[in-house]
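Amino acid chain:
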Amino acid sequence: DGVITVATVGSVGQPRDEQKLSTWSFLQVATNKITLATMPIAYDVESHRSKIVASTLTAATKAKLLGFFP
C-alpha cells in the first residue's frame, strides 16, 4: 500500500519533560500523509528508583539517573 511505519520504544527511566512519564513514538509515512505521535506510558517510578539505588552502578551514575526524578 506504500505505507511505512517506524516505532521506537523510547526511554524508560530518563524522561526529558515535566511529566516524568516513559514514552514511545511512531512515525507513519503514506503517499499523502505523514503522522508522528508520541504516546506516554505510566510506570512505577518508585520501583524504578529503588532498583537504581540497589544496583551495582557507580555512585555517579546512580546520581545522574536519579536526577531525572527530583
